[in-house]
Design a protein that fits this description.
Elements lengths: L13 E2 L8 E3 L2 E3 L1 E8 L2 H6 L3 H15 L2 E9 L8 H13 L2 E4 L2 H4 L3 H13 L4 E4 L10 H34 L9 H20 L1 H9 L4 H10 L12 H10 L4
Parallel strand pairs: 4-5, 4-6, 6-7
Antiparallel strand pairs: 1-5, 2-3
Helix pairs in contact: 5-6, 9-10
Length: 257
């Protein structure tokens, strides 16, 4: 079964609002339903919210401009060149069920692999999804010949940039190695610090088990859990409510996900 578009591998998603497969009625007109997909490349970015908040802001702005409603959000912590994306698979399942549009802040947040981007676009056309909407390329209609050509070009540019970053990194590492710089490996002190940090994180998560377990049982979304935790005084280092991906990682530590 395909690791991204297969129907048998839905990841954990966050249903925010809206019911059924029809557009949400707001006032006197029907609003288009958006499924928001966010991706950060590293665990550190995911836990800190760096990059995620900017993506959320772009999607919300696009929703306001289009008179649309974000009915579900899915957050992935994974490299843009990897095709194994349980959260993206779950987003596609939800989009097919609703006939909704999958909204992504930037095309490279969907993928940095041109073949994968085009395959996902074909999936949208063939399986009842509304289509993909990219906030950085909002006018591209990939259902038309011209739109597909532009999407192909932009996806190829994103893949080129990703591969060049990898090449430059490899070249820099090779040059450093030639100068005698020791690369790689973890020192004993680093391992000890990592273990201590993991133990602290597990301990902090365990303190929240009694609060989170009933929320999970009640089917609350990650956003709702974040708001409840904020009300109880659990916030991030900036004093802000936890990002959805932070709550998700706490649930994973507690085996509640």
């Amino acid at each position: 079964m395909d690791s991204v578009t297969g129907r048998n591998r839905p990841g954990r998603g966050v249903l925010v609002t809206g019911t059924g497969c029809k557009p949400v009625v707001t006032g006197t007109r029907e609003a288009v339903e958006l499924i928001a997909y966010y991706r950060v490349s590293t665990t550190r970015q995911g836990e800190s919210g760096l990059g995620l908040e900017a993506q959320q802001a772009k999607v919300q702005q696009m929703a306001r401009e289009r008179g649309a409603v974000v009915v579900a959000e899915f957050v992935e912590v994974e490299s843009g060149r990897k095709a194994d994306r349980p959260q993206l698979a779950a987003a596609l399942v939800e989009a097919r069920k609703r006939g909704a549009v999958v909204c992504v802040a930037k095309m490279d947040r969907l993928a940095r692999d041109a073949e994968l981007v085009l395959r996902l676009n074909r999936e949208a056309q063939n399986n009842g999804m509304g289509r993909f909407l990219f906030c950085d390329l909002p006018e591209i209609d990939a259902t038309s010949a011209a739109g597909r050509m532009l999407l192909t070009m932009m996806a190829a540019v994103a893949e080129f940039e990703s591969r060049r970053i990898g090449e430059r990194t490899s070249e820099a590492m090779a040059a450093a190695k030639a100068r005698g710089v020791k690369l790689g490996g973890l020192r004993a002190n680093t391992l000890m610090r990592n273990d201590a940090a993991r133990d602290r994180a597990n301990g902090e998560a365990e303190k929240l088990r009694g609060v989170l377990a009933p929320m999970v049982a009640a089917g609350m979304s990650l956003r709702q859990m974040s708001a409840a935790l904020a009300g109880a005084g659990k916030r991030n280092g900036k004093g802000e409510p936890l990002a959805a991906v932070q709550v998700s990682r706490i649930l994973s530590r507690l085996a509640l996900a």
